[in-house]
Amino acid sequence: MRKKDDNKIDALYEATIALVNEIGIAATTVAKIAKKANVSAATLYIYFENKEDMLSKSYVRSKLELSEFLFSDVDSAAPIRERFDYLLRRFVAFIQQHKEQFLFMEQISNSPLLEKWCLEEAQALNEPLSELFGEGQRQGLFKDADYHLLVLYSVVPVVQWVKEHLKLQPSIDERMLDKVIRMSWEAVRA
Known about the structure:
Elements: H1 6-23, H2 30-37, H3 41-47, H4 51-71, H5 80-97, H6 99-109, H7 113-116, H8 120-124, H9 127-138, H10 147-168, H11 174-188
């Protein structure tokens, strides 16, 4: 049995992300991924079962990197408002620094494929945010609403704003970001 090569795995992940962003999920094939990664298609099958497995694992890996980026340095003793602000700013920084991964995750998230996959591990990566909203609700800071609704009204608008902003400018206007985060806080505040 051949030993797995981390460099090849990384190349396959990068190729998958790049191709999905360039040509879309449907047009991305195992052969195209292997060619872009500079490996044989047979090599890809050493690491992944098929295209769907490759996409699923690329998505989970990207979500893990996002989760680590967002939550690794959060001060759990800080007030809810500070953690909320910090997490949104970290999300914006991730989008800026890892644009390709972010766009890939957006495509997968908006695809019916995600519903087919059983991605509990990807959903579990959002647990710190869920805990933040739960703690905020217990303290009477957030509206008494479902977690997904709180995310929809607080995180999603910031993400949309960043995507639109970056189409026009390569950097983020910090004063505008402050305003957007304040508006997100107000949208979910009790």
